[in-house]
Amino acid sequence: MTEIRSTNEQDLGVFVDTLHAAFGRFPETPDEGRGVWWSALEMDRGVLATAADGRPVGTAGAYSFELTLPGAIIVPAGGVSAVGVLPSHRRRGVLTAMMRYQLAELRARGEFLSVLLATEATIYGRFGYGPATYTRQLTVPRHRGDFALPRAGGAAGPDTGTIEVLRRAECGEILEEVYDRYRRAQPGALSRPHRWWDLGAGQPPVSPAPRHVAVHRDADGVPDGYASYAIGESDTLTVDETIATDDAVFTALARFVLGHDLVGQVVFKHVPPGHPLRRQLTDFRAGQVGGDTDWLWVRLLDVPRALTSRGWFTDGELVLDVDDPFLGEHGRHLLTVRDGKADCVPTDREPDLSLDVRDLGSLYLGGTTPSTLVRAGHIRAHHPDAAPLADALFRAERPPHCLHWF
């Protein structure tokens, strides 16, 4: 018999040891409590599974984030992480029990959605999570990195700013402030609480790992973008992330790293799908796409509240018949959108679309079109006009993108 319970600060050591054992690893030794990813764990949000003899056999954690929805609307979101079950206790229902317990805890906190990054794409769909944002890697040989138009800044116009190179240790406050401005306007972006930056919890540039940072400043000297990078083997310059408040800033930072001396190629680790960088290059084929993958997965816990919380950009009505098999729930909702606001109420009308809650999670941020999931056989459209209308309704002002690792 497995017992599932919430954790507290006294459980931190057991939680960390159990989680690492689940993945066959050992905890890193923190440098004065800094620079390890698990240093930001919120133990009042953790879940611990114990066997009949009291031994810990499974963990699940959650962070307190804010998520930016379409329309630049910011809402609380539980960021699920640190999920693991000891190899000796897998396929015994431990993970399912922890997920059910955790979803109830998230609801009790008043959160209407949760998010996660999936180590394996086959695990979390059965718990109601669907992939909602996507990212890719772009590799450009430096000798083919010329831009087609000199000083082109994209839709935002020419760049009038400057770039300064700093070390990661010199510019933590700048990174934190610029990222926060960026994430508040970018659909799909998560907050990075000050505690994460202070503890160096996560991957670069949040962690204190040695990095150079190209900081972009506008004409008034205000930081409005950065690129965190390091040069490794084979003369490869790898950009951890490029944060920019507009296209001109991104282009300026891309120009900078592509013009770096003694570099054979530049790897941009996180580029949003559809980003114009490849088309800005003289040689379109110079930008080689790789690592095209899902990133943020979304799980809706209160469908009407979720649908009325985001912004909308097309008027219309849809009847959504939503099944939630993991929680044993089902609802038929009339979604009415007028002037950017939505109303969502129960209805007996015939549905336009029938779908699983995990598929609604994929649609929610506008990164997956309903017609794609109709064609894939995930969503049932009850008449020919349903999918095109849903495509128009669920679109965001720009593709959602998430850079934060947790």
From TrEMBL:
Keyword Transferase carried by entry: yes
Record CDD domains: NAT_SF
Top-level division of the source organism's lineage: Bacteria
UniProt entry keywords in alphabetical sequence: Acyltransferase, Transferase
Entry-linked InterPro entries: Acetyltransf_17 (IPR041380), Acetyltransferase_Eis (IPR051554), Acyl_CoA_acyltransferase (IPR016181), Eis_dom (IPR025559), GNAT_dom (IPR000182), NAcTrfase_Eis (IPR022902), SCP2_sterol-bd_dom_sf (IPR036527)
PROSITE patterns xrefs: GNAT
Keyword Transferase in annotation: yes
Entry annotation: catalytic residues: Y124 (proton donor), F406 (proton acceptor)
Gene3D superfamilies, A to Z: 3.40.630.30, SCP2 sterol-binding domain
Biological process annotations from GO: aminoglycoside antibiotic catabolic process
A matching Pfam family: SCP2_2
Segments forming domain N-acetyltransferase: 2-152
Residues reported to bind acetyl-CoA: V83, G84, V85, R91, R92, G93, V94, L95, T96, T119, E120
GO molecular function: aminoglycoside N-acetyltransferase activity
SUPFAM superfamilies recorded: Acyl-CoA N-acyltransferases (Nat), SCP-like
PANTHER family xrefs: N-ACETYLTRANSFERASE EIS
HAMAP family: Eis (MF_01812)
Subunit structure, interactors included: Homohexamer; trimer of dimers.
Family of this protein: Belongs to the acetyltransferase Eis family.
Protein name in UniProt: Acetyltransferase
